[in-house]
Amino acid sequence: MNEFAELSYALDTFYFLICGVLVMWMAAGFSMLEAGLVRSKNTAEILTKNIALFAIACTMYLLVGYYIMYSSSAGGFLPNLGFLLGGENSVDAVTAGGDDAPYYSMRADFFFQVVFVATAMSIVSGAVAERMKLWAFLAFAVVMTAVIYPVSGYWTWGGGWISAVGFSDYAGSGIVHLAGAAAALAGVLVLGPRKGKYGKDGSIRAIPGANLPLATVGTFILWMGWFGFNGGSELKVSDVASANNMAQVLVNTNAAAAGGVIAALVLAKLWFRKADLTMALNGALAGLVAITAEPLAPSAIGAMLIGMVGGVIVVASIVMLDKLKLDDPVGAISVHGVVGIWGCLAVPLSNDGATFMAQIIGIVGIFAWVFLASLVVWLIIKAIMGIRVSEEEEYEGVDIAECGLEAYPEFGVGK
User: Quick one: CATH architecture of 2-403?
Assistant: First the structure.
């Protein structure tokens, strides 16, 4: 019995770690997607943001964020404050048996959670691309990953008050994606649109990305990484029921992404008379975000339909935000925020244990906290150091202004 418990513990820990590695690989996906959807003169800077934010997220969550998220009392509102990680599980605890026996390493749990924090922060970088100061962004990343995300994480996955009302979010449509989008929206409101994006007559000018093949590769990397994102959230795989659940989660995740692509592409063709690649890419991500809140309970067909609704929503949302003059170069607020809300609301459609009221409370609680806290932090950073590059630097490209090099040095200024 003891040997079986240790073997199961080892298997579940290994599975958890590998899923975390897949989620970490999503950082590459975000980097490639964002680098493909910005102009060539801003590519090196967006890549610098992505690798720096990942390092900052890992460091701040290690120092304080993980403790805030998982070391507080059940049902509470104010989290405990503390530093670093707790102890590791002992052999005796693992082999004792019973419902309370740990079945994976606490370090594996930290590793899986820290890459989720980085994912939430990655959402922000695309929305504020091409006109934000690098160091202002990184200053915000420190606060977001150390405090803002961990507090709402405590309220939900950490067992706080939102969890207590019955909010259900299997892998983070609201907890991760809506939170990242809420922080991004606050940043976009303070920052303002890119120069030339909106005409004085109210016209909307398209600013095409520099490298759509790169953006497509990034989307496929994210699609692949999502199997770890959702699959790892089953938390174990060492028994028949859990193994079957993980298989169902991966099938549903894939079906939702495919449905999102098809729906977004068809709608783009009907609406714009063109098969818009960027809408197809965002459709895939929308399908993935939509199913993340409940990838286990629906049938595969149900998951596909949830993803298709996400694909329709994201196209409509991108157009709507442009009309509202909210400049989001990669569509992050629509993909992760608007569709994240849909994902949370879709949970009761297949999960009898969830209610629409609990889902709405969770959505409002997460959005209100992250948006308002982020807005305050953005305004403080703006007052202290400014958050926007100069008009000249924006014209020349933030690669030169912020990084002193170009991703594509053979291209001229302003391309």
Answer: Orthogonal Bundle (1.10)
